[in-house]
Amino acid sequence: MDEHNHYDNCFLCNHPILKHTLIGILVFLGAFAAFYVVTDWHFKRMLDPAVQMRKMEKMMLHDQRKMDNMIRREARKDFQFERKAENFIRVEKNADNYKIIIDLRPFDNDEKNVEVTANGNVLTVTAAGESKKHGHEMITKVSQNFMFDDNVDLSKINKIREGHDYIIFVPVE
Fold first, then answer.
1. Which of 14, 57, 125, 173 maximizes the CB count within 10 A of its CB?
2. Separation between Cα atoms, residue 53 and residue 64, nearest integer Å
3. Residue 169 bridge partners (DSSP)
4. Contact, 161 vs 111, CB < 8 A?
5. Which residue spans traverse the membrane (predicted)?
């Protein structure tokens, strides 16, 4: 009976609204304390110089990998273009003359896009054209210099078009 009497004298047992209010305040304080501890850990970890250095190193390695891939991709494009450029302009020699053959297909199939200039013993061939592939506009420009011996007269060059080829004849004396 003494235990029963103990519950009858309980202040909170006789005031349930106060009991629920205090329980709510204690739950709120416990949640706030847990949130504060977790946030404190997070900010201490976030502001730790060692962690920040590891993050920076990881970001720098990631950027370096992206840059290496971009450089490798551009080098591969340049290499492929150089291989194609060898097919754009080619030279053949026989006893009478040099034949410089230019494939006009990459240069809008128009001989007006090819410029031939002579300066001393150097013949310069410059060709340019535009093409659209996969929604991208690409400009192709190739310039190549040819140096000849003194037995070649560049003032007597002859140019003709045969199909997709523009042929420049440079006579040998």
1. 125
2. 16
3. 99, 158
4. yes
5. 20-38
Which run of H or E residues covers position 81?
helix 49-88
Residue 131: how many other CB atoms lie within 10 Å = 13
Task: Give tens-digit pLDDT for 24-44.
Answer: 999 999 999 999 999 999 888
Tokens, residue 128: 């340019």
Structure tokens at 157: 């060059």
| Residue 54, number of CB atoms within 10 A of its CB | 11
For CA atoms 147, 150, 156, 160, the dihedral sign is negative
Which DSSP symbol is given to 131? E
* Predicted model pTM: 0.51
- C-alpha triplet 13, 15, 17: angle, nearest 5°: 120
Helix (H) or strand (E) segment spanning residue 139: strand 136-147
